[in-house]
Every structure is written in structure tokens, then in C-alpha cells.
Amino acid sequence: MKTDDSPQKIAERIMAGAHIDSATACTLARSADQQGLWTAADELRRYFMGNRFHLCSIINARSGNCTENCRFCAQSARYQTGATTYGLIKREQAINLALDNEAHGVHRLSLVTSGHSVDKETWKELAELYAEINEQTTMELCASMGFLDQERAEQLAEAGITRYHCNLETNQERFAEVCSTHSWQDKVDTLITAAEAGMSVCSGGIIGMGETMEDRIALALELQELGVQSIPVNIL
Length: 236
Prior knowledge:
The chain has nine helices and seven strands; from the N terminus they run H-H-H-E-H-E-H-E-H-E-H-H-E-E-H-E. By secondary structure, it is α/β, with parallel strands linked by helices.
């Protein structure tokens, strides 16, 4: 590796406003001194984020019986996983969980529902629940309810939801290996729709599904291209 392509020099260029490309990222992952890479990554973390944690928590508001065939997901109705299944969470239980999360210092709270999306009646119940949580807590509100159209995205924003979550799960090239009942583009369209409605977006992926380092880097760059503000990384 050239001196100018050391982890420290690359970190300095990023702090000056440059973006890393796929070839450089792959070279770093495969060839760089690992300690030097970790040190540079930590320097970038401190530069951009400081020493602060922003705590986000979720409530599993509807579990199981999902029609989609995501191969990693225990909530898909297509697999026998033994996962707990139930319909929409009861109001009192959700409120108590929300209050407990705030008491433990959580900054953001999301209601997460299994399934392709939520229908009109389910959304009506969720909107009322969000309104009550908003009244009783000071947490920022997020949502993860599958795919969105413009109307539903605008309803979410009007209900006080400031961030929408929809994981890409893996990079575009290998997405069909992970799921065939919807596409990578379907997820991207939902993120774009949420952003156009005024919400920030949260999207990440899963490590441990047989992907290569190049796949992981491709996903990271795709998320960067989409302007995703919050990136969860799940490890199987």
C-alpha cells in the first residue's frame, strides 16, 4: 500500500470532505495493518460523532405471519421457526413499554410491525398509539412498517414520526439470494418516499449471510449514495 493510501492518510482525506471509493475500501479491508485501520476508524468516529451514544429502542408491535420469504427472518410464515406470533400490540402494553424505555434513557422509540405493510385499519390504530406515546413521553418517534406509498408516508410524518426504518439487508447484486418476494429497489423506493415526506431514514444490513467483504462494502456505499442518516448493522 502506498504511503498516501495508509489508513491515517485516508482518514484525513475523509475528514477534509472526501469520500472513499470501493477499490480503496476493499484494499483497506484486505491489506491494511488492522491496528492502523481500527485506529483510523476510531479517529473518524470521534471526529464525526464524538463520545456520545444516541439510544434507539423498538417495540415489536406485531409479530410473525409475514408473507415475505426473507431467508434470514424468523417471522416469515414460510418457515417453521417457533417464533412468537401475535396481532397488533395492546395499547396499555405499548404505553407501558414506551414509558419504561424513556425511564432508561432511550432517545428514539420505534414501533415495528411484521409483514409487507400495514392496512388502513391497522394504521388508524397505530396513529392513535403514536399520538398517545407522543403526549406521554419526550422521545423522538420512529416507525418500521414495511413498504410505503406517498399517502402513508405523509400520514406518518403528520403523526409526528421523524424517522423511518427499512433495511436494505444486503447489497443490490446479491439481494435476490436473500429474498424473492420483493426487490432491493422496492426497499430503496420506500426510503426515497419516506425522505420526500420529510422523515430522515434509517437503513442497514445483516452480516453473516454468506456475503463477501466486497458485498459488505458495496452495501455501505449504496447506503451512502442514498443519504441514509442512521445505519444499523445486525450480525447473525
